[in-house]
């Protein structure tokens, strides 16, 4: 029997989960200003995937550096740490059936505690933290699980409307077993009042789809006197799929 190269489990032969286009926002959401120029103006053309796009390469743990999953320390000077609220983000990458997806490369990037990115085009007033780079990565384990440490990113203003602010968020990229299998989304934090005021979030028509992007505080996984924990599961296909912002225009 054919098997998955990483897990040795049988290849899925069950029903294909069609993409639910009502779950994902339309590509054109004028309240999110850049979507006006970015959304397709003409009918889409589909291309078949090539074998190399769908079959490889496979990511392995050998490519990970020590500390890649610890944003508190991975850019800090020896003996120092990033400023901010210490957090653990954890969860599972699962498919529509709830089966874990092993071997997925997760990359994450975020602003610092003051809401500023370490990027030359970010000129926000908040200072850079010399001990915080703002990016990291990890690979899901056999059950699709992942975890990393960081500091809670701050909200920041952005030039969309006259006074628009992004809620605290962490960007996620998920690679499957090939470079063509990339999905991108954002995670928000439970209780943040800016979530429901954000023009990007408000481009998502279904409230339940938005709520799936909000990581819940998990006191059980919190480390006392150290860090709070937030749980964020990523679903790859079907009605309960996470909203992926780079898949708005088609499949
Ligand atoms: Fe951002």
TrEMBL record:
<feature type="domain" description="Intradiol ring-cleavage dioxygenases">
    <location>
        <begin position="89"/>
        <end position="117"/>
    </location>
</feature>
<dbReference type="InterPro" id="IPR012785">
    <property type="entry name" value="Protocat_dOase_b"/>
</dbReference>
<dbReference type="Pfam" id="PF12391">
    <property type="entry name" value="PCDO_beta_N"/>
</dbReference>
<dbReference type="InterPro" id="IPR050770">
    <property type="entry name" value="Intradiol_RC_Dioxygenase"/>
</dbReference>
<keyword id="KW-0223">Dioxygenase</keyword>
<comment type="similarity">
    <text>Belongs to the intradiol ring-cleavage dioxygenase family.</text>
</comment>
<dbReference type="GO" id="GO:0018578">
    <property type="term" value="F:protocatechuate 3,4-dioxygenase activity"/>
</dbReference>
<keyword id="KW-0560">Oxidoreductase</keyword>
<dbReference type="Pfam" id="PF00775">
    <property type="entry name" value="Dioxygenase_C"/>
</dbReference>
<dbReference type="InterPro" id="IPR024756">
    <property type="entry name" value="PCDO_beta_N"/>
</dbReference>
<dbReference type="InterPro" id="IPR000627">
    <property type="entry name" value="Intradiol_dOase_C"/>
</dbReference>
<feature type="region of interest" description="Disordered">
    <location>
        <begin position="1"/>
        <end position="25"/>
    </location>
</feature>
<dbReference type="InterPro" id="IPR015889">
    <property type="entry name" value="Intradiol_dOase_core"/>
</dbReference>
<protein>
    <submittedName>
        <fullName>Protocatechuate 3,4-dioxygenase subunit beta</fullName>
        <ecNumber>1.13.11.3</ecNumber>
    </submittedName>
</protein>
